[in-house]
């Protein structure tokens, strides 16, 4: 049996107390780009300093020069496939432009990395259509908070949003999500702890249709008794949505922890076996040395990073902007500074 939480005061007191500091300190808080740039300090030390040493340490562009660059990019979690694509593009441009000095092709490398992360024009079509967004990922990556923040983003765009709290296996997951739903100002359909997640999604889908909701956001379990059960549960939920809401635009977003590097990639591949992934939400990018994973993901999975998170507050999740990310990574400047 599912339960519904409206914009009630049920969770308001605790969430208002907990987040009262957000308002007080909002004037002092840095902008998103400044926080992203600060958060990528460790990644910058991991990748950019090494790249600079290659460009400054070599007098000629030769095989050894490219091998050094390759090693630094792979060690920086940019991944084998992405590194190969980036260096192939770089070699082609160096040849076409008759570049001889290593330092002269640094900007070409930066542009090549940026090109590797383009999101695509249709990536955010779900914002304009009646959509069901399934948010998946293991426990501890920031999945539930990402659902709450995404609800806030869509609500601010004037969309009518409903949340389905289908993570019925983790203790207090529903209560945590209800707090986020309250902050975002949206309704939520939930279930008792241990109840069938698919039944919660079934009820939420029918409520979304009846209320003419623009976007239904479904939080899902990050862990069951074993991996096979978890994947089967996701497939079951997908079948219900396909059957009950066939005309809805579908999004399957996997939430990955940016601090886990290549492990995040392995998780995404596993979830990709149970659901056709359409995008990545990359969290905890404030302070990771493995930020290069943002570059690797699209090349390795052919799935774009759509959102990036740099903190705990509602506004700390934003659309992924490759230009902004590369500027932050390579210590670039924007108008904000």
Please supply descriptive tags for the structure shown above.
337 residues, alpha/beta, Rossmann fold, Four Helix Bundle (Hemerythrin (Met), subunit A), 2 domains, 13 helices, 50% helix, GTP-binding, Signal recognition particle receptor FtsY, cytoplasm, nucleotide-binding
Give an account of the 3D structure.
By secondary structure, the chain is α/β, with parallel strands linked by helices. The chain folds into two domains: 224 residues, P-loop containing nucleotide triphosphate hydrolases (Rossmann fold); 76 residues, SRP54, nucleotide-binding domain (Four Helix Bundle (Hemerythrin (Met), subunit A)), CATH 1.20.120.140. The chain is 50% helix and 15% strand. The chain has 13 helices and nine strands. It has a nine-stranded mixed beta sheet, with helices on both faces. It is elongated. The relative contact order is 0.17. About 6% of the residues have low confidence.
Write the layout of secondary structure elements.
Blueprint: E1 2-5, H1 12-25, H2 32-39, H3 41-57, H4 63-75, H5 80-96, H6 106-116, E2 131-136, H7 143-156, E3 161-166, H8 173-184, E4 187-191, H9 197-210, E5 215-220, H10 227-244, E6 249-257, H11 262-274, E7 279-283, H12 293-301, E8 305-309, E9 317-319, H13 322-329
Parallel strand pairs: 2-5, 2-6, 3-4, 3-5, 6-7, 7-8
Antiparallel strand pairs: 1-4, 8-9
Helix pairs in contact: 1-8, 2-13, 3-4, 4-5, 5-6, 5-12, 6-13, 7-8, 9-10, 11-12
